[in-house]
Amino acid sequence: MWTCTFFGVRDVVVITAVGLTLAAMVDGACAQEFPPDAVKGKAVYERHCLACHGAGGHGDGPDAARLTVPPANFHRFKSFLKSDEELLRTIEHGVVFSPMHAWQGQLTETERQDALAYIRLLVQQGK
Ligand code: HEC
Q1: CA-CA distance, 103 to 121, in Å (whole number)?
Q2: For 10-68, what is each residue's pLDDT tens digit?
Q3: Residue 23 CA to ligand 1 centre (angstroms)
Q4: Could you tell me the residue range of the domain that residue 12 belongs to?
Q5: Domain shared by 57 and 95, yes or no
Q6: Which pTM does this prediction carry?
Q7: Could you tell which of 46, 50, 52 is best to mutate to test the pocket of ligand 1, judged by most ligand atoms within 8 Å of the CB?
């Protein structure tokens, strides 16, 4: 009877240990993709987006004045309230009849997510 209980406890410990190891492995695998990296995103943004959207994301980049459709000001509630999915879709496919073209093919999914993370950071910092 005592032995039985002893094994029962040990089994639980072993199962828990395996569970924790698995959880740690799953965590490790995810860490490569998430969370998006705003530091890498800054480089992507400065290279590809800043000319239109501006250094602070206010839609006032050096090229903005020449555009008939003004670039989005990410600080506006209109953009701020949109979900990440919605904005990522815009970055991926672009906006029809506007200078905002699709970035799919030019930027990887990770780069697009990183750029969005940087945009969110800009807005959060209120710059
Ligand atoms: C040639 C100028 C230009 C460049 C370069 C550009 N954009 Fe845009 N972007 C625009 C314009 C114009 C709009 C707004 C279209 C509209 O008002 O419907 C826009 C809209 C957006 C939106 C949607 C905002 C919203 O509220 O729906 C996102 C997100 C965005 N751009 C991200 C990016 C990212 C990320 C990059 C760089 C990878 C980038 N843009 C590069 C011109 C540009």
Answers
A1: 20
A2: 565 555 565 555 555 555 444 446 789 999 999 999 999 999 999 999 999 999 999 99
A3: 38
A4: 1-32
A5: yes
A6: 0.79
A7: 52
